[in-house]
Amino acid sequence: MTKILLGSHVSMAKPDYLLASAQSAVGFGANTFMIYTGAPQNSVRAPLDQLKIKEFHQYLNEHEIKLTDLVVHAPYIINLATNDPYKHAGAVQILQNEIYRTTVIGCQYLVLHPGSAGSLTKTQGIANIARAINTINLTNRQVIICLETMAGKHGEIGGTFDELSQIINLINDKQLIGVCLDTCHINDAGYDNHDIDTVLHEFDKKIGLKYLKVIHLNDSKNTKGTNKDRHENIGYGTIGFQTLLKYTHDQRLVNIPKILETPKWKGKPLYREEILVLRTKHWKDYRK
């Protein structure tokens, strides 16, 4: 029986960096996880030779976690949609650096927020994103850029499957592009998560399930269609435990890494408790 790939975002704290990330994930009971190669809010990065990559690989091997099942998330500050030449060039440079770091670490999935159109039309923003990715992929050999589904707030691109499809259609190398589906984001964007068959059918029709590479498994504090993007702990939001169980165990999604990005409760992460209830399919009030 295929093992469900389930984990969470984990921090990369010095002095052990990547090794510390893997140790945290194993402590949570995860067999996949997501990292940022530095702070998500900026592009300041520790040198690769400080990240303990060799020790990281050895630890993963000891715990039977595959590098190819892990996920890196690009910094939030990247906006490939912008028309500002200076900001656009900066965004491309930051993303190129993240792809290089992801390649050296050995991961294959890099999740990216597509960007915000700002004063541009969505069509113009989409064209800018695709053009930038095509340029970046001229030197990218292995990292699949996974465009994240967004909540659709403040001119965000990616609030609909159609918008992501339009970007993918403009990408030259289809082997190096994918999608990260965030359950909170699509809820807040107006999709009905409770009807997973309809969601996956529309995704397949508009984009293609072969492009679905990563799932961000989050509950939502918001009702459907509010465009707010506020994550909630599994089972305590408007999406609910039973619906998120479907995403966890659906055979169409079994080989896809599922990553929790849920909030802390009383100052501590609840990833271990959330992973346990999702794996066992047995709900309990773990926020007591």
Helix content: 25-40%
Run of helices and strands: EHEHEHEHEHEHHEEEHEH
Radius of gyration: 18 Å
How many β-strand stretches?
10
Task: Outline the secondary-structure elements.
Elements: E1 6-9, H1 18-27, E2 32-35, H2 53-62, E3 71-73, H3 85-105, E4 109-112, H4 122-136, E5 144-148, H5 161-169, E6 177-182, H6 183-189, H7 196-206, E7 212-216, E8 219-220, E9 231-232, H8 241-249, E10 258-260, H9 271-280
Parallel strand pairs: 1-2, 1-10, 2-3, 3-4, 4-5, 5-6, 6-7, 7-10
Antiparallel strand pairs: 8-9
Briefly characterize the structure.
This protein is 35% helix and 13% strand.
Note down, in words, how this protein is organized.
Helix content is 35%, strand content 13%. It has 9 helices and 10 strands. An 8-stranded parallel barrel has the order 1-2-3-4-5-6-7-10, surrounded by 4 helices. Strands 8-9 form a two-stranded antiparallel ribbon.
Give structural attributes.
alpha/beta; two-stranded antiparallel ribbon; globular; single chain
